[in-house]
Amino acid sequence: GACDFLIKLIQPLELQRTLDRVVSLNEGFHSNAYAMDHLLQESRTLEIGNNFEDVNRIVAFLTQDLPSFGILEQSQLFRMNVILKEALENAIFHGNLELNPDMRRDNPILFYETAKRKMDIDPYNNRKLLLQIDISRNSAKYLVRDEGKGFAHSDLLDPKDPENLPRIKGRGLLMIMNFMDEVFWNDRGNEMTMVRYRKRN
């Protein structure tokens, strides 16, 4: 009967510990600072379409953890965002949508109108961009692969040689190759890997 059930009184210390655990759990939902201090490596893979208007949001997602890993100072984050924006737009515009780079310079309005039109027609509308991110305490590596025809990357001039600067076409690639510590492509030229190492004091 009812006499077989005993009411267990909650001790004040046990109640306090329970409340502390609940508060701590709630704080964990709102802040990942503690986890980031102990996270050694992070890897993510994304597949996106060719809507170039989404690039800024994707770039912000790709770089949000870099300061926590110590790869970049907060003041350098803007430059990294610009670099990745260039890489993604190059892959979309010149890779998947096969737009001529000269058109962007000579007639920007026509360039973006053509890009929007191609986004909705075969075979361009089915092409995807694959993004792979590997971030550790030592480096950040970004791989960008489009489904276009690729390009002859072996013909690229060394941007770190001052004599080549007037002859290099494409400010995007110039910025990427100057800011990143390593940049390389697959044989086909439709996959670019960029690496930025943590700078030691």
UniProtKB/TrEMBL annotation:
Q: Which domain of life is it from?
A: Bacteria
List GO molecular-function terms, semicolon-separated.
Answer: protein serine/threonine kinase activity
List residues of the Histidine kinase/HSP90-like ATPase domain: 55-195
Query: Which keywords does UniProt give here?
Result: Kinase, Serine/threonine-protein kinase, Transferase
Protein name as it appears in the record: Histidine kinase/HSP90-like ATPase domain-containing protein
Native source organism of the sequence: SAR324 cluster bacterium
